[in-house]
Predict the 3D structure of the following.
Amino acid sequence: MSDFQQTVSYTWPQGFPGAPASANPIRTSIAPEGGFVAGNNGLTIAHFAWRNDDSITLSNSGTTAPAGFLYRSQQGVMTQYLQSATMTLPAGFAASLAEGGDFWALATTASNAGQAVYANTTDGSLQTASPSNTPQGTVPTGWVVSRGGAAGELIIISGPMHPVAA
């Protein structure tokens, strides 16, 4: 296998999954003393994450509303020799969760502005649908689509800037 460049992009991308999409404030989840860390299976950046029973470790799977969106915060760590990119945060590494703000994300479904954002309960990936139509295997996140797109394309999601009442 060659290490030579394989593709050429003619324009800069609009954004990167998990990166802030505006200059609006980001509301982060209050972490326990010592901060959050990735659980045994690590975490996927630009996916939703849940707090594990110990309230310190996080995972990309859960059954209730997720604790937040794992945004890009210099968290991806390349652990393989000559690896070119990663969206994985290894187990035990510090993690920051966003509870609000505007972020670039990839949805597995086509989306339109105003749709609700749902988290897949097995891997934290995003799906979108109308607020009254929760897709099977997902839970509501309290986030909405600000700029839609086709399935697999970059979209912008926005989380509430104030705590959501339980």
